[in-house]
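Quick one before lunch.
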Amino acid sequence: MSNYAQELRATAQAMVAPGKGILAMDESNGTCNKRFDKLGIPTTEDRRRAYRELILTTPNLSEFISGAILYDETIRQSSQTGVPFTQIMQQAGIIIGIKVDGGAKDLAGCPGEKVTEGLDELGSRIAEYYKMGARFAKWRAVITIGEGIPSRTCIEANAHALARYAVLCQEGGLVPIVEPEVLIDGDHTIELCYEVTDQTLQAVFTQLRLHKVAFDQMILKPSMVIAGLNCSTPSTVDQVADQTIECLLNNVPASVPGVAFLSGGQTNEQSSAHLNTMNARYGDRLPWRVTFSYARAIQQSALEYWRGNDANTQAAQQLLYHRAKLNSAASVGKYSPDMEKTPVLV
Ligand code: 13P
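Model of the 1,3-dihydroxyacetonephosphate complex:
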């Protein structure tokens, strides 16, 4: 058992406290730059810093956000006036999280598939992040649905890496967010997505058990069960909610404190509606809290408004706050589409 067991349990519970979710802002420099580029924002360290400052200094964000996941560059940065981001988060009551994976790379021998790298020296990196104030971590594995894929090889390789990562985190005092993402890209049906998600979660929990990961000291971050973006029969909100919950109930041990979804390319409205329906229909019968750990579905409207211009910061913060609020409502089954009206911006 980890020396940190009690602390890890408390952190995991706090991450999924009722009405709260996790804000993913851990885009690697590559991904962040791609999103900046699309909006004509200079892809410089200073603009990435300014954008992350905008997010972390959003007034009252901790009403809805329990923790935020940072990237390595971000956890070392400070505000314009020199206050470390870690200090800003601690003062705001937002738990510090850190992405520790090295990204999804081509999986040798398996064309079109990826495996997430980053296990080398992971123990010492975790120790450094803990000292910097981090209390949870994230590792994202990617499973692609396509012609003849995913292969068993890809699912098992990713599940194994997730388990190695998770147990290292628990030994070092960080709650692992275990993130197996079945990509929404493609024309697959919701039935096929169910099958692949089911196989993936089965493999992941088998490996977690084998590596002695404590289920009560981790958070699962899955994708929802949903038809591919190019599927000719898009899923309904009820289908996504029903199939996702069924798949989770069949695979996720009751001792896991929480399930916090990624948005994965769904629209803002879909991400909120799906989460809401799961909680409204099943919330009182589920063994774990079901909430959000969104990046795009919380950030995108703020980023598009800001566009690299500091004069837009305050209004962008209001948009970010608004999405956090709506997703918080969805995490307790109290969201409705008429809450979508854009707030009056300053
Ligand atoms: P999205 O919500 O944009 O899918 O991002 C979540 C995340 O952390 C991806 O790893």
